[in-house]
Structures are given as structure tokens and as C-alpha cells.
Amino acid sequence: MSEAIARHGKQLVAIKKIESIDIRKTFILGPLLLVEGLFKQLGINTVLEDIQKRHPKIVFDFKAHIFSLVTCRFIRPGSKLKVYDQELDCLYPKMITKRIALHTLYRSITLLAQHKDQIEEGLYHQGRDLFNTQLDVVLYDLTTLRFESVRTDLGKLRQFGYSKEMRSDCTQVVLGLLVDTDGIPLGFEVYPGNTFEGKTLVDIVQKMRKKFQVRRFIFVADRGLFSEENLNCLRVEGSEFIVGMRLGGLKTRSEEFYDFSRYHEINDSLYVYETKHNNDRAIMGWSRSRYERDQKTRSDIIAKILKKLQGQKAKTESFISHKGWKRYIRLDGQSRPIFNQDALREDEKKDGFFGVITNVKDMSAESVIMQYKDLWKIEDAFGEIKGPSLRARPAFHWTDTRIVGHLCLCFLAYFCEAWLTKTLRSRGLALKSHSIEDKVIRSRPLTVTEAMKELCEVRAVPVQFGNDNTIWVHTDINGNAAKLLTAARIKLPPKILHH
Asked: What confidence tier does 131 reach under pLDDT thresholds 50, 70, 90?
């Protein structure tokens, strides 16, 4: 009987305590823990602190502002105004400085732009020991970033030009990005939106040489940069190159390049033929994956053309004005559009073929091709920077300085993400998903984006006892959220965060 009374008494005490607990709101914690750890490990804190020392009159905490902006980029990317109005209040307040104002957020972006080169150099030198690699091969490509504006009079960068996003109604800038073969970004340059991509090469190579002490520089770029002028520029700079060739522009050798009997097998999916182009090595390749992609892309186009031709109101102008269609259309004796079978047969002979030109002498043809194929990593970088995870565009800044500062912020965020991606790949961490149909558990590589979704659900909770007694605790950290923090070598915090 006494034991029963004692248990009942304890229950009453517990109920009384629960009644005094007040939990009105939870705050995002997980991404703050991750970004805080990365800023320390990757040397970002050191770079930002050095910038603040150069501006002794600035009274706000520059590092804390950039930390907040990068964290919000991972949680729910948006404008600086949205961060100030909505996002900051959702973050665990013990890790966010109280002295953040809208004008200091914008001032922080301006500082990033002013110290862009210093940031890139600082992170490069911090990272050499961390990644334990000697920089030899550099991947380079360009993309366009649009603005929700048509004004071109507020600076030199925002201009109309050829848009890779097919948005001719918007002004844009051209973004050139450099990454290493692990996908880690090294630096970027911003050019006016009407810049021809081939014209960026001289500038980017000279800046690369100036910023980084590179023992051997092998520049890898896609065929958009293939021109004698650009290749000569690389030679003058003492650089080696692996650049995609525009086979369509070398019609005098097309019979040779597309003669499959000249190729030898590397493996079941890759065949190679090496020859000369002027004084450089020209390595032709045939890839099964590229062949299948070319076939699929064209079959989709042909299906749309044939469907439109079957319509009773198929107008010639609608085919001729369409860039992807006009090659497969010719006119009959009555000037009506009909399908061009000869063009189809001609293009089918070229499926799967590609070319690379290089002045690298001590690398096998297969190795050159593999280095060239690594360009998917920079395409992946553009996908992340421009896509829903970091959303560098559309951008809403007006001046050139703010535009560069905005891209510096996105560069820092992607620098963190790329390092995490490399870490997850090296550790072979997998995301497990349960299939209801097959009743099996499948595994696929864990991505930063997927893990970040779960990390955003890790919350800090203020638990108030009575009127003035508050402790902070966090929700459980498990699953992919725990995998991500562990992979980043970030120690999980104690259950009670602050009291």
C-alpha cells in the first residue's frame, strides 16, 4: 500500500510540473549546427574575420551576418529582405546575433563583393591541406543568370544576351565558374550579359594564374570555348588544355571523324581514335551513353515535328523559325513543309561521336577523355547554384557591386555543399527508401539536399517553467540528419542546449 501511495505521489508531482511547462514555438537548429561547423573547418571564419579587421569602423558582426545569410540559403533561399523579415526569427536565437538590421545585411553583401578575390584565395589556400591535393586540372564553364528586370542603365553587368535559360525577355549576367576535379569551386567571374562566352577565356586564365600558385595548369572546357584564338591564349599563358571540339565546323574531315572502323575499343561503352589537328592531339570518341542520349533527344524532336505536320494548318514559318526543327524540314513543289529524311539519315551517322583537342603530351587518350567527361561536375554545380537548393536566380539586385556580392554569397554556400557532397561520396553513405510496391528497402547515394531536409526538422525548443525559468532543448537528431553531421565531423550537441 505504501509503495502505491508513493507512486501516486510521484505522478502527481510530474503532472504538476508538466502543467507549468510552456512551449509556444520551436526554432530551426540543425542547419545552424552544420554551417557553424563547416565555417570553422573550411577556413571561412578565418577569411571573414580577416575582412572585418580591414574595416575597423564597421561596428556590426560581419561574420555573423554572412553565417546567417548562408544558413538561410540552405533552409529556404530567398531575397535579403525575406531573410530579414521572415527567416531570422525562425532560427535558434542563441546562435544568431541580435544586432542584425536590413541595412547591415546589404552592407555585408557589399563587403563580400569588395573582397571577392581575397575570399577565393583564402579558401583555396585553406583547402589545400584539407583536401590534400595538388591542383593540376581545372574545369571551366559558363552559364547565364537572369534578373526580373529589363533595365540596362544601372550598371555594366545586367544586359540582354543569349540566354541559356531561354529567357530573352530578361536581362542577365554571364557567370564563369572554376572547379577542381572533386567538384570543389575555386573561383568565379561575372561578365556582362551580352558577352560571347569564348571572349571570357583570356580574362579567366590570367586571373587564375594571378590568384593561385599552380604547379601545372591543365584547363578543361567544353566546345563553346573551342577557337584558335582561345587555344593560342592558353599556349601563351603556358597552360595545357583539354577542350571539346566543334566537329560540325571541321567538315573537311567529317568522313574521317565519323568512320567507326578507325576507332579502337577502350571498353564496351567507349571507343577512341587519335589523330592530329594542326600541331595538337585530336582525340575522337564514341560513347554508348552519348549515342543513346543523341537518339533519345532526336526522337523526341521528330515526334513533335511529325505530329505538327499531320495537322491541317501546318505553316512553313512555324518550322523554319524553330531552331531545333528547321533542319528536318524541306519544301515540296508547292512550297509545303515536308519531312527531310536525308537530314535524318545524315545526323544518325553522327550519334555518339565527340572530339577533344589537347596539347597534353604525357596523358593517354583514355585519360584525356575521362578528364573531359569530368565536366559533368561543373554542370552539376550550375544545377545546384541555379536550382531550388540555392536559387542564385532570379536575382533582384540592381547595382554591379550587389550582384557580385550576391554571387559571392552563393559561392560560399556552394563551397560548403560541394565539400559535403565530396565527403558523402567518399564515405559511400546511402539513403534508404522503402518501396511499398516491391516491399523491399532500396539504397541510393545520400545527397546533401535530401539530408538537409531532415536536418531542417531538428529544432531547438524553449521549455519554460513558471514565469522566469527557461531551458533550451533540441529534438532528436537521427537518420540522415545525423549521418550528415557525423560525415562533416560535427559533434552532436547535448540534449539541453542552454539553461
From this structure: very low
